[in-house]
Specification:
The complex is a heterodimer. Chain A is an alpha+beta fold. In chain A, strands 4-8-2-15-12-13-14 form a 7-stranded mixed β-sheet, sandwiched between helices. Chain B is an alpha+beta fold. Chain A: Its EC number is 1.17.1.4.
């Protein structure tokens, strides 16, 4: 295993900005973001611009009887008020997978906060006040808010007359999508079990809580088109949805990525994009829309809340015999990414374990709750919380150590997934668990210091000074998870990169142009590293991301380093070949190695694989410019069979394991996570510092779900805590030490052998923390986030 | 919206008399949030930041006069020894940035039951110095909170300072939130031992329509301490007494269920905090007594 591991100490130093892959090159946007100088999409300004504002529904389900915009239009400073009736074409809906989301409400509102009307005015406050003058008459309708109300005989249908591609195969029109997976014979296998353990689990609605709210600027063009500057995760997906609604060909909607303040899945769906364009085209003026924090909670989809039923069987000697599960995801009012989330939840529901006999069913519901869609972990998070709770429970039932039990059943390379797919690259599940378990435990009672009063910062409750050690019990818990990388189920997932190589002021310079959304993952850093490695140049310019180049796919599914990184590598290789052809034409007769040797570009020179320098790259290029735009695809996948769930559905799997050490104030139900150690296989760390950052960030987001983060929806499907006052995310005092152990076991199918890393740590973090709280308290704890009331029992 | 910036206290009082609906603003940590979210649209904002004296404090022999705008950061840094309860409470206020701006005057002005300073103020037995062009009066803290987010100020009055007795004994403050920093109180509790008068005072936050004292608990404890000669003998308080005190604190609360916590959890947590903070303050008192006797 030598050489495959990096310790945290050698990951903490940044490398020079001119390094290639494998170096911890510092991010170009890092210092700017920390010092507050980075320009986010909300900072944009255009001379003569107007401000857009969105009037939203106060009800979760209501018929719109009338809309009167006359008072709003009469207000000084107002340039336009738009409702559904003002939409310019017959395309009045959009959506990621189904086209089911109205641009503006079409006579019915289906969730709290649904957009009803738009205002453009010369000042944001004017726009807001004008919107308040729009008179909307609603007739409230009964809400569908859970499985029982969605499938009741007289249940209102969210989308009667569905014509989407899952409509004909779902058992009920309020089910967005259903994916069973049947493999082996779970009932027969259950008869071999010495113990059978069942459990019901629940995951609350988590929010991405990105710090930069939805915002963008639409500028009408002289050609009747529009230029849209926006913070998003996938420019071309936006474009595909925006253009038809505007009645414009895609080339007349020119999109440019502006500064993105985090995404985590919450920017996969459109928010203000179409609205700003409609207002700009209507008024002929640039229109900026910025949501405030309150509105942002209504402006994007959330993580699906889920209810999960599991049954596992095992033999006395600790081998799992079978698994049955049923996962119900609340998709809310519109489909968003629900079908794909169902595919993930079902196909990953068994976890990173070998179980040959399974019966799995996952469904997503249409309800009047807030729409749910993509969020880091995407269906795998919910399943992981449940199956890891089950692993602890089965181990306890068998009287086995929970880590040894997991290791005994851990999948390896060659394991067959419930979908029939063979895991054909390293799957070091047992090894990851071994590594986190082998770490020394943090010292006990760290709040005590000789002769001093307790350091409350190290205690549950923190600065709130609730305990000086009273009632505090320590617990340790483990979890491991499996996440797919890239888009699955037969989706044509590709990325495009354009690379230009030329001589500028005597130096060879590469320009990398992609449409990849840099949302904080560090792709722009890695692209430059790849170009330096492949082209042997020092200077690399990263062109702003826009739609003047082909699609880069989404910055999600842990896919961008694999996919757009792969596209940059692929295009660089083609550019290198062209450059070498130029070299052969110019200098081929001067040295036989031009014809016979493997040639590389290194340090601005053409060298043989033996290290002999043949020419300066600048001389090879001369006045020529090599400029190529190429698409890159991962190996194709297949859809899951709709009856059996069989199919080669996923491109790659990603694994992480956590050990959580928590201290719980058992009397008050408050939790301090003391340490959250993570081991993850990343295939190849292109930028080790960024890798550790991703793992620590994902780990912290998982901690948030474990102990505090939840959007609370009342029985009338209304959101009760749309603010950072009451939707709590971890502060630095809630964030523990996060030791990170990085494995680099190459996946031969992937560029550089790398593995997508962004999501896996979010999976196992949550169940590890809850397992540790269970260990400290002896409570069953079937729901996240764990609230103080769950621990105190009152 | 008119924005008035008086240069002196007298000018501020005159402005408030002329515009009784004017909303005073100092740190702005509450008022600006309300304005930004359009929860409130005052006709007139009265900016008190030019009035230097509001940022001053004075430590006297028996009392501390705390200017209404003295920031929580300054309280933590400078007044921990004389106002330990308020300093501990100040440390739980929001984030460092907010603590640099916000002060006790704002907490009193808003009179939110969740304001972090209130339990410590109630436990200290302070008085609030308010003034108008008509004159100055001192409002005992017990009479200050009159309803949900309502205080005893007349429309033309402004809060000038808080007069807090210097701590004559140990004080503690404890607050439950579902995060380990920067969190609004689910409920909070303050306690101050007053050995000079052989009394105990308490304050409860976020568990009733206004900040309140747990008077029955205070009286029970004072009687129990007196009866057992505890002030003099410095013995450990029997667990049964601590339990009864905790129960009476729980019983004093009148909490509601909301997104931050349930009413029953609030009652429970208040009991736990009451028992623990009593233990901490009494341990400190016994320690002080012992070292005093040794000296």
């Amino acid at each position: 295993m030598a050489g495959t591991t990096r310790t945290p100490t050698n990951l903490t130093q940044g490398a020079k900005a001119d390094a290639g892959i494998g170096a911890s090159t510092l991010r170009p946007d890092g210092t700017l973001k920390v010092t507050g100088e980075f320009a986010y999409s909300s900072d944009m300004w255009h001379e003569d611009m107007l401000w857009g504002f969105t009037l939203r529904s106060p009800h979760a389900h209501a018929r719109i009887l009338s809309v009167d915009t006359s008072d709003a239009l009469a207000q000084a400073g107002v340039y336009a008020v738009l409702t559904h009736d003002d939409l310019p074409t017959e395309h009045k809906k959009y959506g990621l997978e189904f086209t089911d989301t109205p641009v503006l409400a079409d006579g019915v509102v289906r969730h709290h906060g649904e957009p009803v009307a738009l205002v453009a005015a010369d000042h944001p406050e004017t726009a807001r006040r004008a919107a308040a003058k729009i008179k909307v008459e609603y007739e409230e309708l009964p809400v569908v808010h859970d499985e029982a109300s969605a499938l009741a005989e007289d249940a209102p249908l969210l989308h009667p007359g569905r014509d989407d591609h899952h409509a004909h195969e779902v058992p009920h029109p309020n089910i967005v999508h259903r994916q069973p997976i049947i493999r082996g014979d779970a009932n027969a296998a259950a008869r071999r079990a010495d113990v059978i353990v069942t459990g019901e689990y629940e995951v609350g609605m988590q929010d991405q809580a990105f710090l930069g709210p939805e915002s963008g600027l639409a500028v009408p063009g002289e050609d009747g088109g529009v230029d849209l500057y926006v913070a998003t995760q996938w420019l071309h997906s936006d474009l595909r949805q925006i253009a038809p609604v505007l009645g414009l060909p895609e080339e007349k909607v020119r999109m440019t990525l502006s500064g993105v303040g985090g995404a985590f899945g919450g920017r996969e769906d459109l928010s203000m994009q179409i609205h700003a364009c409609l207002l700009a085209l209507r008024t002929g003026k640039p229109v900026k829309i910025v949501y405030n924090r309150f509105e942002s909670f209504f402006g994007h989809v959330h993580r699906h809340p889920a209810k999960l039923w599991y049954e596992h069987g095992a033999t006395r000697d600790g081998k799992l015999t079978h698994m049955k599960c049923r996962i119900v995801l609340d998709g809310g009012a519109y489909a968003s990414a629900s079908p794909a989330v169902v595919g993930n939840a079902s196909s990953l529901s068994v976890g990173p374990y070998v179980i040959e006999d399974v019966e799995i069913e996952a469904v997503a519901l249409y309800t009047n709750n807030p729409p749910c869609g993509a969020m880091r972990g995407f269906g795998a998070v919910q399943a992981c919380f449940a199956y890891e709770a089950q692993m602890d429970k089965v181990a306890a039932e068998l009287g086995m150590d929970p880590v040894e039990f997991r290791q005994l059943n851990a999948m390896t390379q060659g394991t067959i997934m419930p979908t029939g797919q063979v895991v054909d690259s390293p799957a070091p599940v047992a090894e990851l668990l071994r590594r986190v378990k082998a770490l020394p435990l943090p010292p006990e009672n760290q709040w005590e210091s000789a002769g001093q009063t307790a350091d409350v910062r190290a205690l549950p409750g923190g600065l709130s000074n609730t305990t000086h050690g009273e009632g505090v019990v320590r617990g340790v818990g483990y979890a491991v998870g499996i996440k797919n990388v890239g888009f699955s189920e037969g989706f044509d997932d590709y990325s495009t990169a354009r690379v230009r190589l030329e001589v500028v002021a005597g130096e060879p310079v590469a320009t990398v142009h992609t449409a990849m959304a840099e949302v904080g993952q560090g792709g722009v850093t890695v692209h430059a590293q790849i170009a330096r490695t492949e082209l042997g140049v020092q200077q690399v310019t990263i062109h702003p991301a826009d739609t003047q180049v082909g699609s880069a796919g989404s910055t999600s599914a842990s896919r961008q380093t694999y996919m757009t990184g792969g596209a940059v590598k692929n295009t660089c290789e083609a550019v290198r070949d062209k450059a070498l052809q130029l070299g052969r034409r110019r200098f081929g007769t001067f040295h036989p190695a031009w014809a016979t040797a493997e040639l590389l570009l290194e340090g601005g020179k053409v060298v043989t694989d033996g290290g002999e320098v043949l020419a300066d790259l600048a001389d090879v290029l001369g006045d020529d410019v090599v400029d190529l735009e190429l698409e890159f695809r991962h190996r194709p996948t297949e859809a899951f069979d709709i009856v059996t769930g069989q199919g080669f559905g996923h491109v790659q799997y990603s694994f992480a394991a956590h050990r959580a050490v928590v201290e719980v104030d058992t009397e008050l139900g408050l939790v301090k996570v003391v340490e959250l150690a993570c081991a993850q296989d990343v295939g190849k760390a292109l930028n080790p510092l960024s890798v550790v950052g991703q793992i620590q960030g994902g780990t912290t987001q998982g901690l948030g779900l474990a102990v505090m983060e939840e959007i609370i929806v009342d029985p009338k499907s209304k959101v009760r805590n749309p603010s950072f006052t009451d939707y709590l995310i971890p502060t630095i005092l809630d964030t523990p030490t996060i030791p990170v152990d990085v494995l680099e076991l190459a996946d031969d199918h992937a560029p550089y052998g790398l593995r997508g890393i962004g999501e896996a740590p979010t999976l196992s973090s949550t169940p590890a923390v809850v397992s540790a709280i269970r260990a400290a308290t002896g409570l069953a704890l079937k729901r996240v986030p764990v609230r103080p009331e769950h621990i105190t029992g009152v | 919206m008119d924005f008035l910036r008086p240069a002196s206290w007298e000018e501020a009082l005159a402005a408030k008399a002329e515009h009784p609906t004017a909303v005073p603003i100092a740190g702005g940590t509450d008022v600006m949030v309300e304005i930004n979210f359009d929860h409130r649209r005052p006709d007139v904002l009265l900016d008190l930041n030019r009035i230097g004296e509001l940022h001053d404090w004075e430590v006297g022999e028996d009392t501390v006069r705390l200017g209404a705008s003295v920031s929580y950061t300054r309280i933590i840094e400078n007044l921990r020894s004389v106002l330990p309860g308020l300093a501990t409470a100040s440390h739980t206020v929001a984030s460092p940035q907010i603590r640099n701006r916000g002060g006790v005057g704002g907490n009193l002005g808003c009179a939110s039951p969740a304001g972090d300073a209130h339990p410590a103020l109630l436990a200290s037995g302070c008085e609030v110095e308010v003034a108008s062009v008509r004159g100055t009066r001192m409002i005992p803290i017990d009479e200050f909170y009159v309803g949900v987010k309502r205080n005893a100020l007349a429309p033309d009055e402004l809060i000038r300072a808080i007069h807090l007795p210097r701590a004559d004994g140990p004080q503690q403050f404890s607050k439950v939130g579902t995060r380990n920093a920067m969190v609004i109180a689910v409920c909070a509790f303050g306690i101050a031992l007053h050995p000079s008068t052989r009394t105990v005072r308490t304050g409860i936050g976020s568990a009733a329509p206004t900040p309140i004292r747990a008077k029955a608990a205070e009286e029970f404890l004072a009687a129990a301490l007196e009866e057992g000669g505890f002030w003099d003998n410095g013995k450990i308080i029997p667990p049964a007494v601590a339990r009864q005190f905790a129960e009476l604190v729980s019983g004093a609360a009148n909490p509601i269920d909301d997104v931050r916590g349930s009413a029953s959890y609030r009652r429970h947590a208040l009991g736990v905090m009451a028992r623990r903070t009593l233990g901490w303050t009494w341990d400190e008192y016994r320690g002080n007594e012992r070292s005093a006797r040794c000296a």
